[in-house]
């Protein structure tokens, strides 16, 4: 916030009335101009060491005086604490995004959802050093950041640290200058520029040899009164020639003047675009607050009132739009002040006038009330002091507001005393406390004062308030000050003019102004500002007409631009939310496909920015046509996660999405395009984008038809791409050739960690290619190869790879026609492998003989945690062998033996193993006929076992006796959380046994008794037992034949006895 950012060099010349002799400045000018061979040589006998507090040139008294002046201007602020990490670690960016060049700062934060670019960071002490040993230091450096993010604060910290010799020791001299200073001059020479910043050159002359390097800081390019024009500026190499200030700066940046000087420019992003990218050697960006820094900022504002802090934090977090803007430090402080004032002066929950703000204009209205001292008002009464303040407030709006408005129109953000006089601003008013909340004063090098609003948004708020007030009586267009226009009468006419101007402004500079103008029409804002800034009930009859006018601005253009999204922000400020709400409801219900008009598209783009539901993932499945998608492309750029499944997208849509993913502004990290109609042509379009994309980490193309050639295109891209971590090509008919191409990519790629190739008709040859790649690749962690046909040959090839590969953690070989031969090879590898954590062998042909190999591997392997053997042919013999291994194994955590023809004998063996095993937490025995005898064996183990948390016994032929045994175990067991008994026949007796256990058990969280012939009596027992059980969170009692009325009664009983339990009936 510039209110708290001090300019460091501006007053350096104050108090030194005598100028330096021309010949004494000439030496410095020659150095800066690159003349003289001694300029780069260090002095032979310096009085101070390079690490001295005054730096390597501290022996020169003039530089010492300059450093002392800089420290004096800092006011000792460095003693209060060093800069925050976000200021000492800047983002190293490659250039400006289109969004930064085109849009308002607020729009930039909203569109990117407060997320800053993923980029390398560079510390402040290395900001002007080479990035590598073979590179050179930057000459032109630019640091960008939105208004209020802390650019001037950063400059202040750097200059202060340099003056103390703690940073930038390579620089002999640092010359800080602000554009607020430069704006006071019409023409200026380089000679006079240096004199104004560095007036400490003494009469004895400056030893040029002692000056090795100079840094010129130009802070606040966005405040330059004349835009820089690098195309038409005439070159100037004479440092004494007086030229226009913008021409002077242009020639300095080009290197025509001071070619040896390092230049550091700070600017808002849009203004930084004036400097050609070819001239910029290094660009950095100041990021805003993250969630923790927002909290810390507010804690510093309310250090002694935890209740107040908690309330303010809750309000910030509850409103996503407010939270996003609080990532900007200046806005966070402003919001904190307004919300803190609001909380302190609320009479109670019934005080509707001071409810928490829901819109931007409501927040700024609260801030205005605070500035005006409105807390002194009593209900129904207005004290003379408040009347006087209110009169002063209206007077301020009429003067400062007029200046603010015309400043916005002319892109003018810094004002001087002639400007104030021209707009009729009473200089005495500037000394008031009220004014200090909006305007700040700074001295310039020209001994005149510069004024600016404490934040850009406050200029926009006051400008809107002025326009709102003036439009009631204005006859001509307020945007053409001093010009001629057709007569315009009435508020609506002027509002239409403002809306048209805002929609036509390509840089979005009037977007927030228009939001405030709409917000001033809302009833809540009228209540907040009635009697101080607005007349009660003023313009309320215009709300409906304004809403209609705004929606009329949403024309059927091919693209939903930022201006259209801003219309939705305006409607929100107006409290006309029907359009956005209808689209949000359609998104939730899956009916978005029928809403395709321009207003609905704009509303959808708006919701993608502000909706909590879209914050983590924008789910647009079953919703979009090609036309709607095309119109939303600019807004999709900034979604972090996109789900576009089942939209019948064909290859032309992939061309569009490819262009989005190729954009330098793209922030998309995850995109799902499952179950569309994408062929190899569409895959090639996506592959081309992967060659340049640097944001995408996950791409899901399952259930399309990309074929081998589409796989080849993607594989070629993966050889170059260094960001994609997860790729799903499930069900894409890529066959062995496609697997070969993917294997070639894996041999070169070092970032892909997850690859899904299920259901792709891949045979042994494809598996062989993949195995060869795994012998080289160390980054892939998860390979999904299920539902192919690799057979024993493919299994053997993968086994050989596993002996070498120590990176793969999860391998899925479900349904691949693997028999005992392939399993033997895999288990041999497992004895040597120390990386694999999960192995899925479901739905293969593993017999008891293969189970013996599995058991031997489990006794040796000490890393595997999850083993799935569902739907094989283990029988009791094979399961018993595995049970013996489980008894000795100390790492396996999950074992699936569903549907393996296991009976009581194997269940007994597993029960005995569980009494000794301390690692297994999940056991799945469902659809095995273990009967009561097997259930009793497992129950007996539960009495001693302290590790198992999930037990699945669905359709296991368990009757009342088995349920009774399990009930007795549950009465003792303190670790089991999930018990699934669906599809058995435990009956009333079993239900009663389990009910008795539930009365004392405190660990069970989920219980499934679906289809168990419990009867009404059994259900009542279970429902009654839950009254004393506070652990159960979910219970399924479906299919127990108690009728609709009985189900309703049991459900209500459970909800009464256990309110936190979810019941399925």
UniProtKB/TrEMBL annotation:
Keywords: ATP-binding, Cytoplasm, Leucine-rich repeat, Nucleotide-binding, Repeat. It holds the Pfam family NACHT. It is found in: Cytoplasm. GO terms for cellular component: centriolar satellite; cytosol; perinuclear region of cytoplasm. One of its GO terms (biological process) is T cell activation. Signal peptide: none annotated. Its main location: cytoplasm. GO terms for molecular function: ATP binding. Belongs to the NLRP family. This is NLR family CARD domain containing 3.
